[in-house]
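Final paragraph of the annual report: two paired records, presented back to back.
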Amino acid sequence: MISKLPRWVWTGAWALAFVAGIVNVVGLLGFEHQAVTHLTGTTSMLGAALASLDGAAALHFALIIGSFLAGTVLSGFLIQDSVLQLGRRYGLALLLESLLLCLAVLLLQRTSILGIYAASCACGLQNAMVSTYSGAVVRTTHLSGMFTDLGIFLGHTLRRLPVDMRRLRLCFLIISGFLCGGIAGAVAFHHFSYAALFIPAALTAITSLAYGIYHVRHRRSE
């Protein structure tokens, strides 16, 4: 069970889920109609492409998966741990995510498929950066695990078994953040097209700065 979650974890989890919600809806509404924050559907499409011997499509889906994986590798190289802990290089990882999203905008505005790969890499970086806290898995770019945990908790409640209320709150937090991001992203895409990705790019840059300030203040108060 999660014993305690600092305020920066709650705030950061919602903000990053919001960011992922925007990025994914822009990918779905864009010219490729491609989900980029998770790989389940992409892997299925890769399988279908391989089965139909469509080499171009198979390469495309493989590159999306490879880009996401490259982002996770970059996160592992920078942060060097899977446990969420104040003091690690989250600020740098968030700044790199912001730059990747800005690059994605520039490429997608030119109808370049490379923009999808840049956005996928940014999502892989984010998803690996926020990995675990107090033994609980924390994922901010997809919701399958959150809805699974939510269903388990509801089942436990029906059986009158103990429920980890902090974990339950975390599930609702990430789900609501991703949903709100999807709404905001759809509205922004309607008005600004791919420039809507500048919103999550700005948010990750601001979060990077806020994390750095919080970390400095926390060290001074010790």
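The closing record of the year follows.
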Amino acid sequence: MSKEWFPLIDEDKCIGCLACYNKCKHSVYDVENGRPVVVYREGCIDGCHGCGNLCPEGAIIYSGEYKEHIKCSCGCGG
């Protein structure tokens, strides 16, 4: 789990497909008004790109992107 690595959603790019919400096994996201929102950023795994890799619009970037990180072992693709 990370305090410095977490997803940031570009609301102008997000189309509300919820691919990120459906992919994340760490309860990082919730859905409000049909759109994903980051509600538990501490649940994100350092270096995990699972949700960002699925985003069809490239609406997800990560705080802490350029720090050294550990690969996620949960099978989420991070």
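Strands lie at 6-9, 29-32, 35-38, 60-63. This concludes the annual technical report; the extension proposal builds directly on these records.
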